[in-house]
């Protein structure tokens, strides 16, 4: 893996656009993700998350705009950039293969492959080399798929709903293993998930798409620090529900208490603004 130049964004999109005939899946999407960040890609169904990942991975061509990976424009190469790994929603595992055979396939299919590293990740996951993929649990399959994605030693790792299908225990186990690894390696990660509560504490950067447009973009701490939600003692317990209670926008009386929102509240406020969602106000720094 090349040593990232800290001045160059790991991943940058400039006015990225994607139309599928009548559907405008992504509009004028511009962001710059610094190296070493673990970014959450949040947004409701159909917001354009998979489309964005597919475009970055070179699976689809944009209708407009540009993508840069470590400063190199996607216009200068075809297919997936050698420093990017993509773990799509449907995990690319062959059910009839053993764990060992999957690793061999990874070696064959990738010009750049760190066999030693991939084997170590599989060992850490407690996977038996002779076990068939079809006999693995959902959590074990996720760990194998992640080892396959990391075996390329990517500088940028794209994960589309990596924790879907997993029960809460497996989600925690897989996400901890994944995060330890990418932090140790300094890998930049872009990870989509519907379960925004899962992303808090895992991700230090947030991109939120709604109807193909980027509505939130920045370091999580900065975004949370720049917004306030009204403190409602009776309502606080409902923060985990999909549609949070409305919090009045104004006027705020002098006694009104404000607190920093959770990541979930902030994202929900953009996905479902009042009168159906939480009102979260921006504060000037
Ligand atoms: N191959 C395609 N042909 C036509 N429309 C498409 C195609 N793929 C996606 N779309 C449309 O583009 C929009 C964005 O879809 P996309 O799958 O990128 O969203 P998403 O945020 O990943 O959704 P989900 O969270 O449900 O996976 C949707 O309206 C979808 O119906």
From TrEMBL:
Record's keyword terms, sorted: ATP-binding, Nucleotide-binding, Transport
GO molecular function: ATP binding; ATP hydrolysis activity
Region Disordered, annotated ranges: 234-255
Residue span(s) of domain ABC transporter: 11-236
Classification via InterPro entries: AAA+_ATPase, ABC_transporter-like_ATP-bd, ABC_transporter-like_CS, ABC_Transporter_VariousFunc, P-loop_NTPase
UniProt xrefs under Gene3D superfamilies: P-loop containing nucleotide triphosphate hydrolases
Pfam families, per database record: ABC_tran
Record has Nucleotide-binding as a keyword: yes
Protein's name in the database: ABC-2 type transport system ATP-binding protein
């Amino acid at each position: 893996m090349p040593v990232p130049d800290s001045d160059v964004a790991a991943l940058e999109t400039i006015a990225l656009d994607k139309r599928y005939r009548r559907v405008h899946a992504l509009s004028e999407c511009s962001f710059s993700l610094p190296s070493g960040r673990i970014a959450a890609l949040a947004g409701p169904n159909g917001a354009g998350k998979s489309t964005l990942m597919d475009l970055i991975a070179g699976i689809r061509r944009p209708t407009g705009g540009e993508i840069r990976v470590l400063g190199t424009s996607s216009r200068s190469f075809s297919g997936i950039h050698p420093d990017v790994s993509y773990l799509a929603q449907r995990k690319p595992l062959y059910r009839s293969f053993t764990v060992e055979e999957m690793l061999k396939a990874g070696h064959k299919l990738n010009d750049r492959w760190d066999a030693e590293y991939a084997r170590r990740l599989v060992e850490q996951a407690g996977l038996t080399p002779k076990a068939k993929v079809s006999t693995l649990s959902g959590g074990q399959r996720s760990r194998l798929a992640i080892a396959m994605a990391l075996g390329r030693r990517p500088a940028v790792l794209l994960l589309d709903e990596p924790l879907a299908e997993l029960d809460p225990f497996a989600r925690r186990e897989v996400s901890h293993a994944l995060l330890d690894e990418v932090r140790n390696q300094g890998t930049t990660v872009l990870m989509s998930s519907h379960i925004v509560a899962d992303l808090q504490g895992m991700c230090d950067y947030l991109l939120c798409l709604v109807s193909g447009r980027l509505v939130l973009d920045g370091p999580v701490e900065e975004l949370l620090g720049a917004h306030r939600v009204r403190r409602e003692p009776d309502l606080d317990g409902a923060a985990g529900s999909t549609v949070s209670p409305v919090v009045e926008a104004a006027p705020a009386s002098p006694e009104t208490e404000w607190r920093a929102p959770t990541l979930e509240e902030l994202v929900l406020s953009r996905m479902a603004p009042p009168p159906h969602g939480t009102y979260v106000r921006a504060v000037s720094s």
